[in-house]
Design goal:
heterodimer; A: 481 residues; seven-stranded antiparallel β-sheet; globular; B: five-stranded mixed β-sheet; four-stranded parallel β-sheet; 47% helix
Chain lengths: 481, 323
């Protein structure tokens, strides 16, 4: 925090204003408040219980790559933290200004720069809201096929920074599969570009280094992503299985048989009973499995039938296409209030990814850990984002009445995370698949990576010698050490 | 405080990001505070400590909202964030904390008198009386909606009372209203008098069709997001021979440049200019496209900010076809 030092504060404010214009350096309490809370539960409860929130000293809105570069140079001169901010909808505290400094809000950089129908790519500035990006691409007759629950609120840069994903990831990939090339401003202000295509043998892939770096290694300012034709048809089918295990066997067989669904979701029995009932109105016991295929109608029909045949090998209830389509139609509804968990509940998404051989072990390890150690918590989960080798577990714990004292509540919350995640790692789980690390999970990165984490730390030190970029996140150095 | 009646909205919106892409002001200022989440957080701070009502930055932010109904309309649970901001504005006014420009505008809006001219059992309120032969015409100014959106509830009521007195004295059974904000304000307020939007009246009256002509219809924030997604304007334009094509990239955002806040341009001209610029940027061809709007406010505001824009009101579009 430099607010206490008026001379330095005014000097930095002036310098920032010279770069972006006075109107684009906000120091009012309204905007500072908005940049003090993301979608991480801890700042939410901190606000709810009237605690003082760490706030940025300045909220700065650059309009160009050059302005981003200039801001980083100013920050280096004065050794001030810079926290890139996209939509602020991350759940890991990755964009929180825990040491004050400059919140660099990227939303002014929101232009679609080019749509290339020959190569089927689109280039955009990374501050663009992803729904706005999708609408612009759709107007040109294509789609990004990137449909995350946070499409309405997150930015392209936010997805890149956190290796985000969308509902159709099984066919179209995560953001790191979608990106062709990026323009990046390094922490010291140099403007660089990664190679123009993502498949090459010209050394390690620099683009993949910045993808998922959560603003700790620089600021991604432009990106070219793949776009796709609007599919002729997209069809869904749903089944109800007696147990989650039977549904998992069917789902994994669909993937290992190398069918190519655009989406598969499997809800465990408690989540089927709770959320599927609430949102879709299916009031049945069992594990709900839904999948979809898209593309040319003939191909879709054939693949859908093959997938259904796999499901029919086990004891099942066929919920048909209607209950599959209903899931697609309501896929975002799960994330709106009051369907989404919210205060006074304490809740966390224990996002973990593992191979098919390990994923159920990971599920049970986390579930048993939560159940045995935290009887006040409910554990539910679904499996989303399926690959040829495994899938992601979107497990959640919910506490209906957490302690009133915010410190006690946060201590309990952190304890559940610690124990559940460590149990998952022991069983071959990786934290995490698409929410990122942020402030929440940084402390576990060394355990996750082992000695390999030093490689990442060394890269950070070289790229960001003054440690100005989003300090305290991803398990890297906090400010001052 | 008035905000206390909106606890459910505060609880739902303060940590929810799901409609931020639809906030017209947030989409041009890019500020976190100019979104339903940002404003709900501010109101929550006020709820926790009423002293925060005095914060000039909070007050400015709450008066910078365009009060767009798009956020509420597309929220799956329809949380009324606009209602929350209106409640906060009432609290600000009642605490004597309204900014000077707001007070001055409220004073001006309070100084209206209403007169009725003409003959007939139907009364028309708008700026195109020629379309309504045989109708009486009431004029004078905003009947209280603008004051209501500024948070001046008692002043709004006083102006409305004067308007109602003039309407009752006119002894009419039907009131035709052209401006969507006024229609929204009056539609359930006048017992014994049927309030209809001009598009409904003209549609039922029947209009002549002309040769097919392509046009873009800018949806009214009020008619679409507040008033049952009124379909009459589109039906009327189709009856007149207009082939309406979608404007912009989607049908969820409000392109009505602050219509929801009624006098938005008077209070926030710089932000309003940005809203207008965004609409102009989204036009396929600004100089050749014909834009049609139900709102005189939208027409005037967009024309003021860009002299090249070809925009007519719904009534003018109908009148051109009649000619």
């Amino acid at each position: 925090m430099i607010s206490a030092n008026n001379y330095l504060y005014e000097m930095v404010r002036s310098e920032l204003s010279w770069v972006v214009g006075e109107a684009h350096v906000q120091t009012g309490e309204s905007d500072k408040l908005g940049h003090s809370i993301d979608y991480y539960w801890v700042p939410e409860v901190w606000h709810d219980r009237g605690q003082k929130l760490p706030a940025p000293d300045f909220v700065v809105y650059p309009a160009s790559t050059k302005e981003v570069s200039e801001i980083l140079k100013i920050a280096n001169t004065h050794n001030i933290p810079v926290i890139p901010w996209g939509g602020g909808s991350g759940s890991q505290g990755g964009a929180l200004p825990i040491f004050g400094g400059i919140a660099m809000d990227m939303k002014r950089m929101n232009k679609v720069l080019n749509i290339d129908p020959i190569s089927m790519t689109a280039t955009a500035e990374t501050g663009i809201n992803t729904q706005h990006l999708e609408w612009a691409i759709e107007k040109a007759g294509y789609s990004t096929m990137h449909f995350p629950a946070s499409i309405a609120c997150a930015t392209l840069g936010g997805f890149i920074a956190n290796r985000g994903t969308g509902v159709l990831s099984t066919k179209y990939g995560k953001i790191e599969d979608m990106v062709m090339t990026m323009e990046v401003v390094t922490p010291t202000g140099e403007i660089i570009n990664t190679l123009p295509v993502p498949r090459h043998a010209s050394g390690p892939d620099l683009a993949q280094l910045f993808l998922g770096s959560e603003g700790t290694l620089g600021v991604v300012t432009k990106a070219t992503i793949k776009i796709h034709p609007i599919p002729e048809s997209r069809k869904f089918h749903a089944f109800l299985f007696k147990t989650m295990h039977e549904a998992m066997v069917a789902g994994s067989k669909i993937m290992t048989s190398r069918l190519r669904p655009c989406v598969i979701r499997l809800y465990d029995e408690p989540e089927t009973a709770k959320l599927i009932k609430r949102v879709l109105g299916i009031d049945k016991k069992g594990a709900y499995l839904v999948f979809g295929f898209d593309g040319p109608t003939k191909t879709v029909d054939l693949e859908l039938e093959q997938a259904c045949a796999i499901c029919r090998e086990k004891e099942h209830e066929d919920l048909g296409t209607e209950m599959g389509q209903a899931w697609w139609d309501h896929r975002y509804k799960f994330f709106y209030p009051p369907y989404m968990f919210h205060l006074p509940q304490a809740f966390g998404t224990l996002d973990t990814v593992a191979t098919f051989a390990n994923i159920e072990k990971v599920y049970w390890a986390m579930k048993n850990t939560v159940r045995e150690n935290f009887p006040q918590a409910t554990f539910i989960g679904h499996f989303s984002h399926w690959y040829e080798w495994g899938c992601m577990l979107y497990a959640r714990f919910i506490i209906e009445s957490p302690p009133k004292d915010p410190r006690e509540a946060v201590a309990l919350y952190n304890k559940i995370w610690d124990m559940a995640i460590r149990a998952a790692i022991k069983e071959g789980g990786v934290i995490n698949e698409h929410h990122g690390v942020g402030l929440k999970l940084g402390r576990i990165m060394k355990e996750l990576y082992g000695p390999a984490f030093k490689v990442l730390e060394d890269i950070k030190k070289v790229l960001d010698p003054n440690n100005i970029m989003n300090p305290g996140k991803m398990g890297f150095r906090t400010k001052g050490n | 405080m008035h905000i206390d009646k909106h606890q459910d909205v505060i609880a739902a919106c303060r940590f929810c990001f799901m409609c931020r892409h639809l906030d017209p002001v947030g989409n041009v200022t890019f500020q976190e505070s100019d979104t339903p989440r940002g404003r709900a957080l501010i109101v929550d701070k006020i709820r926790m400590d009423n002293d925060n009502l005095k914060n000039p930055d909070f007050i400015a932010t709450l008066y910078r909202s365009a009060l767009s109904g798009a956020n509420r309309f597309h929220c799956v649970s329809h949380y009324d964030e606009v209602g929350l901001v209106l409640a906060a504005r009432k609290d600000i006014v009642e605490a004597g904390l309204a900014p000077e420009p707001v007070k001055a505008l409220a004073e001006e809006l309070s100084q209206v008198t209403f007169t009725v001219k003409g003959k007939g059992k139907t009364l028309y309120y708008g700026v195109n009386p020629k379309l309504y032969a045989g109708c009486k015409v009431i004029s004078g100014g905003d009947p209280g909606k603008a004051l209501e959106t500024l948070g001046f509830a008692s002043e709004s009521q006083a102006v409305f009372d004067r308007f109602k007195k003039a309407v009752v004295a006119a002894n009419c059974t039907t009131l035709i209203v052209a401006e969507p904000s006024v229609y929204d304000f009056l539609k359930d307020k006048l017992d014994g008098i049927e309030v209809v939007h001009c598009s409904e009246y003209l549609l039922s009256a029947g209009v002549k069709t002309g040769p097919a002509r392509k046009a873009y219809y800018l949806e009214s924030d009020f008619l679409k997001n507040y008033d049952r997604n009124l379909t009459a304007p589109r039906q009327l334009l189709a009856q007149c021979g207009y082939k309406l094509v979608p404007f912009g990239t989607n049908n969820e955002e409000s392109y009505s440049v602050g219509e929801g806040a009624v006098v938005f341009d008077r209070l926030n001209p710089e932000v309003c200019a940005k809203l207008c610029q965004r609409v102009c940027d989204l036009a396929d061809n600004l100089k050749t496209n014909l834009l049609i709007t139900s709102s005189q406010y939208v027409k005037t505001t967009l024309s003021k900010y860009n002299s090249h824009i070809r925009i007519v009101s719904l009534e003018e579009a109908v009148a051109q076809r009649k000619d």
